[in-house]
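Troubleshooting entry. Yesterday's outputs looked truncated, so today I'm pasting the complete records for two proteins to confirm everything comes through intact. If either block looks cut off, that's the bug. Protein one:
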Amino acid sequence: MLNTVIIPVKSFSMGKLRLAGAVDPGTRASLGRGLAEHVASSVASIGLAPLIVTAEPEVVEWSTRAGFPSLPDPGTGLDEAARVGVEWVTTLSPTWMILHSDLPLLGAGDVRALVSGLETHGGVIAPSADGGTSAIGSREVFPFSFGVSSFHRHLQRLDHPAVVARSGLLLDLDSPLDLLSAATTARGRWIAELAGPNRGGEGASIPTMTP
């Protein structure tokens, strides 16, 4: 039975560098913190415990204040952060799940769909729109390979998993276009408020796209 969801979290202040041309550093930090809070709270809202895996003191401070337990990340990349989280969780239960921290449209229903797929099939995976892996869970342990096209690599390591493709899991926030897409949907209004004008520093704003 799944009790804990592993959420690796990078630095708030140094993360989201691909947004650097669209929003200022203060806004990027606010977005990173807001996204982590949003994902962890979505997990907690259905009675599961978010486990924050991070190498950053600022993230540990935030998670402690928010009441979410944290685990030290070796700081050598997402694959190692995932491995450390799974290693810890499987000392308590054989079932584990990893969920990315940058999913602005995630809701409780999306987390429930992941849990249902995991319980029914013994494995679950959710693709991101760019071919990455937004979530993955199993009762087996195997090496991770996050990054470009990771969905296909991870799919090969799972035995007939449930594939969960939902809007809350498809959009991860990496680029200015992702930010615009999230902020202009009903479910992403909180992103528009967080990154709108006069938020996070002078000049912060949702980027606009021109033909």
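Protein two, checking that the full record survives here as well:
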Amino acid sequence: MKALKGTYDGERIQLEGNPQLPKDSKLIVILLDDESADWNEVSSQSLNKAYGEDEPEYSLSEVKEPNPDYESR
């Protein structure tokens, strides 16, 4: 599943970045009234689906191969 941004001009939905979608692609359109608040809620719900209630916590010492592109904060 991919998340794509776009706008509605009154006639058509215009997706940002000109994504190449196969013909007859199935889409779900979510109207965002307050883009930042709603987008954060949708993202949070999707992230919550990725992890179970009993998901273990992993410490940094348990990571076998660190990602050099990750900037710790």
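Both blocks look complete. Sanity check on protein two: The CA atoms of residues 30 and 42 lie 9 Å apart.
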